[in-house]
């Protein structure tokens, strides 16, 4: 089976500093795959490199077996791969209504039937059509992140890159958004690549994960192994201790 996402020997270098150092990750279709590690370990840089937002110095990225070349990504790529960012406050244009925010990706990709698609997208993330003509500042943080998820889903991608999608939200809202994401993944058979500093989130959402440190993958394991404390690297054990609220099964 061709992997949904295959990264091999990927390096990202800024002024001699290796933000990513020969990273290799393979994510199966329909899988939810986690990336964990301390701040600055390279987790978000990996997602940004896949999305074409970070310059790749070396290595390859393949989506459904197709090699991505250079930093530029085609419209077809962004129809297939969408990213949800950490900050729902910063990722939505403050002067655009929710309707306009959802209409824009449809217009970019030449997708018709906009009325039906916008209504369906809002419904799918638990927001009614009454939210269509509100502005981001009129929404709570959780509602804004639901809009960001709806915007990513409206072009019907097969892969979602999730960069700490709930870390800016209150704990109770985090659970709601995570449950929403999991339901959407199952309903649409989506592939997730999820970055989080919270090991509890990763063990809840993901089947397999990679542990990153200083721009490199230091350990690969299953969520069950992590939850059971069946890890090989001291660094991973230290992450378990440091992860707030993480409880071993």
From TrEMBL:
Subcellular location: Cell inner membrane; Membrane
Enzyme Commission number(s): 7.4.2.10
Residue stretches making up the ABC transporter domain: 5-239
Annotated signal sequence range: none
Membrane topology: Peripheral membrane protein
Gene Ontology biological-process entries: transmembrane transport
Reactions listed under catalytic activity: glutathione(out) + ATP + H2O = glutathione(in) + ADP + phosphate + H(+)
InterPro entries per UniProt: AAA+_ATPase, ABC_transp_ATP-bind, ABC_transporter-like_ATP-bd, ABC_transporter-like_CS, P-loop_NTPase
Keywords noted in UniProt: ATP-binding, Cell inner membrane, Cell membrane, Membrane, Nucleotide-binding, Translocase, Transport
Major location (coarse): membrane
Top enzyme class: translocase
One Pfam family recorded for the sequence: ABC_tran
Cellular component GO terms held in the UniProt record: plasma membrane
Gene3D superfamilies on file: P-loop containing nucleotide triphosphate hydrolases
Superkingdom, natural source: Bacteria
GO molecular function, one term: ATP hydrolysis activity
Family: Belongs to the ABC transporter superfamily. Glutathione importer (TC 3.A.1.5.11) family.
Chain's role: Part of the ABC transporter complex GsiABCD involved in glutathione import. Responsible for energy coupling to the transport system.
Quaternary organization: The complex is composed of two ATP-binding proteins (GsiA), two transmembrane proteins (GsiC and GsiD) and a solute-binding protein (GsiB).
Protein's recorded name: Glutathione import ATP-binding protein GsiA
Organism: Rhizobium hainanense
